[in-house]
Design goal:
Layout: H1 5-14, E1 22-26, E2 31-34, H2 36-39, H3 48-56, E3 61-64, H4 70-77, E4 82-86, H5 89-97, E5 103-105, E6 116-121, H6 135-143, E7 146-157, E8 181-188, E9 191-192, E10 196-199, H7 203-212, E11 215-222, E12 227-234
Parallel strand pairs: 3-4, 3-6, 4-5, 6-7
Antiparallel strand pairs: 1-2, 1-8, 7-12, 8-9, 8-10, 11-12
Length: 236
């Protein structure tokens, strides 16, 4: 995104200037709200899928798309060595002000400074891939960042349910693209971001890409609303 709408909102909340939430618009013809307090939640207020993922983390952790840093903070307080990574200037500043020791401003595909035991991607973190066509390149890059015996933890959702018809079929709007590719726009304090692509990937499709990139894909948790937590680790 050319405009750091997300970062501005995080900075306002962190500095005590919370007056409104982030509004999102999507290609699914939906308007939604991201409550800023939720982005600063503690472990007790995180959903079960996130709590479980944090317990699976081991060794040196890279929190990809860390946002306000809530997951990294929990791990750091537990004594885990964690690096918080985000491409938002505002998010990085907020993470630093909240006390995170290792914070990096970078897009994931441009980052290769060190290797990790766990690559963590929560709140549909794999969404930053943007489109299904980019998923294999993304997974291939992760192999450059993993230590031996390292693994990826990510959550996502199968949004096929959003296209279900009354007769039990599916009305997919664009047969040329994967139905989980969504365009989003953020609005905050009267300012709108550019549209950006976000990927929701179903588990079977994720596993197919994972196999092509030398990963085994394991289902760790399945939520009540088409969401899931997956662990990807090298097959050799």
């Amino acid at each position: 995104m050319a405009k750091d709408i997300f970062g501005k909102a995080l900075l306002d909340f962190q500095s005590g200037n919370y007056v409104e939430d982030i509004v999102t618009y999507s290609s699914l013809d939906e308007k939604d709200v991201i409550p800023l307090p939720y982005l600063f939640r503690n472990h007790e207020n995180m959903p079960k899928i996130e709590q479980l993922a944090l317990e699976y983390c081991q060794g040196n952790v890279l929190d990809i798309g860390c946002g306000a840093g809530s997951h990294s903070l929990y791990l750091q307080k537990k004594g885990v060595t964690v690096t918080a990574l985000d491409s938002s200037h505002g998010a990085v500043e907020v993470c630093q002000s909240r006390g995170l020791q290792n914070v990096v401003l970078s897009g994931f595909m441009n980052y290769s400074a060190k290797k990790f035991d766990t690559l963590l991607m929560l709140m549909n973190g794999v969404g930053l891939v943007g489109s299904l066509a980019n998923l294999n390149d993304f997974l291939n890059h992760t192999t450059e960042l993993l230590n031996p015996n390292g693994f990826i933890l990510l959550d996502s959702s199968d949004i096929i349910y959003m296209f279900e018809t009354e007769n039990g079929g599916y009305d997919l709007p664009d047969v040329e693209n994967y139905y989980g590719e969504v365009a989003f726009q953020m609005q905050y304090r009267g300012e709108k971001s550019d549209f950006f692509k976000w990927l929701y990937v179903d588990f079977d499709t994720l596993c197919s890409s994972a196999r092509q990139c030398g990963y085994h894909c394991e289902l760790l948790f399945k939520g009540d609303h088409y969401d899931y937590l997956a662990k990807l680790y090298p097959t050799t």
